[in-house]
Amino acid sequence: MTGEGEGEETPRNGSYEEWVDALAEGGFYLECGDGHGSLPPRRVCPECGYTDLAERALPGTGTVATFSEVHVAAPAFADETPYVTAVVDFGPVRLTGVLRDVSADEVAIGDSVAPDVEPDGPDGRPLVVFRPA
Amino acid sequence: MTGVRVAGVGLTPFGRHEGREGRDLFAEAALSALADAGVESGDVEHLNYGNFMGALAERQGHQAPLMVEAAGLRCPGTRYEEACASAGVAVREAVRAIRSGEADMLLAGGMERMTNLSTAEVTESLAVAADELFEVRAGVTFPGAYALMARAYFDRYGGDREDLAHVASKNHSNALNNEYAQYQREVTVEEVLDAPTVASPLGLFDACPITDGASALVLVSDEYAAEHDLDAPVSVAGTGQGGDRAALQDRADMALTPAATDAADEAYADAGITADDVEVAEVHDCFTIAEVAALESLGFYEPGEGIGAARRGETTRDGDLPVNLSGGLKAKGHPVGATGGSQLAEMTRILRGDHPNSDAVPDATVGLTHNAGGTVASAVVHVLEVAE
Fold first, then answer.
1. Residues of B in contact with A62 (CB under 8 A)
2. How confident is the prediction for chain A on average, in pLDDT?
3. Inter-chain contact B139–A70, Cβ cutoff 8 Å?
4. Distant-in-sequence, close-in-space partners of B278: CB < 8 Å, separation ≥ 6
5. Nearest C-alpha of chain B: how many angstroms from A7?
6. pLDDT tens per residue, range B33-48
7. What are the residue boundaries of the Thiolase N-terminal domain, all occurrences included (chain B) (predicted)?
8. Where are the domains of chain B?
9. Which end of chain A, C or N, has fewer beta carbons within 10 A?
């Protein structure tokens, strides 16, 4: 473990806000020396404990790993129903978000989608979204 | 190391308790457990209390001292929070305290009040158990998360909504004569399939209801039970806990729940048994797919085989391994912070022979309880045995 005693600060690798905002420009993830992917805020790789994490560009497209059409939502998302939640596989990391521009009937596991962010989502915060690609 | 006995169990009926405060619900369960045990409440050395969303539902944090007071105890208390596994953890820590020799008697259980909130508010409150940054902000609900798991399961291992409907129908059948169950009525496979969608592929009858309720157990050391000549035939022979990445997206296989496997492996080793020795189980079926994942994670079925268990009649009342004879979370109800304790209370009665469904397993001596938090980022497993 690195720390004050060694006169070295543990890298922090950004905040969630920086990460989600960056999705507008393609996005990034963090990679440890053993090649494990993770997302910020992150000081240590959750798979292996490696603390030297580097930013890597998120692949431009990912594939739908699973999805659900949500009909009963929390109050902030009530006006959005039904909406399609998807977990998308980008290789080193997976992301969860709302699938836009496609209905639940049209989507299938394995479909290719691109990530984006809607800066002012249903709850007033940035929302991770995916579009067919 | 001393053994641990379940000296007494208490439950409120599960369901809608309009106008009743949480402290009143827990007091009912606690007093019932103490009466069932036939012990002096003054001998209780600590309250291990499970609660998840009290700060949201009743604007009440710091609940343990309130519940000590409500139950008429004279001891400190600690609240355990591990989402839907809160009471399971509370029981596990009580077992560990007694085994360590630090205490001879603890009261363990939990309470949740939920029906005073709207469905949307409950949906929002339960979502707190998911990863706020990467799931909740992305619109993931609790049913939605299990729906993602169900779709991943179908894709990887096969099975369909009808298989899941058999799980719901089975558990409703089991609840018919359980006076503590929220829904004491049959639900047919067709009704499950025709119910409104909550989060595809899961419908309303794939989901447990919104429930108020409380559970309590009096746990004592073998020595205390012997010295006080308690009629406490059931022992907690094994306990185990497992953990996993909080967000579903970070799991290697979103159709599996390895935290439950870790918990079960620890509990089996602790009890000196294997999965094959379990004769009856209460598992955490907050959604129908959750029972399937539990059966596989606990070692009763290989991945991909558990989904047909209810349809094939293997986990029904008359099957080789009856699962959720209480009705499960699905039909008995799921007051989140009370559920783990209620599973042990039901299993204790099943093994003692005084449960309405004890006749389904008249000779059973080994039962298992499986309590899960979030999308099984936390799991607690207990093995109960009829002591020699």
1. none
2. 91
3. yes
4. B298, B300, B321, B366, B367, B368, B383
5. 31
6. 999 999 999 999 999 9
7. 6-222
8. 4-117+209-386
9. N
- The pLDDT assigned to B329 comes to 98
Token pair for residue A26? 């393609």
Give the distance from residue A42's alpha carbon to the nearest chain B alpha carbon, in angstroms: 13
Q: What is the DSSP string of B285-300?
A: -SBHHHHHHHHHHTTS
For chain A, the domains span 16-57, 62-132
3-state DSSP of chain A: CCCHHHCCCCCCCCCHHHHHHHHHHCCEEEECCCCCEECCCCCCCCCCCCCCCEEEECCCCEEEEEEEEECCCCHHHHHHCCEEEEEEECCCCEEEEEECCCCCCCCCCCCEEEEEEECCCCCCCCEEEEEEC
Active site residue B334: yes
- Using DSSP's 3-state secondary structure scheme, residue B108 falls into strand
Q: Which residues of chain B have pLDDT under 50?
A: none
Q: What is the ipTM of this complex?
A: 0.95
Distance CA B123, CA B135 (A): 13
Residue B119, classed as helix, strand or coil, is helix
B166 is written with which tokens?
A: 């058999």
CATH 3.40.50.300 is the classification of domain B4-117+209-386 = no
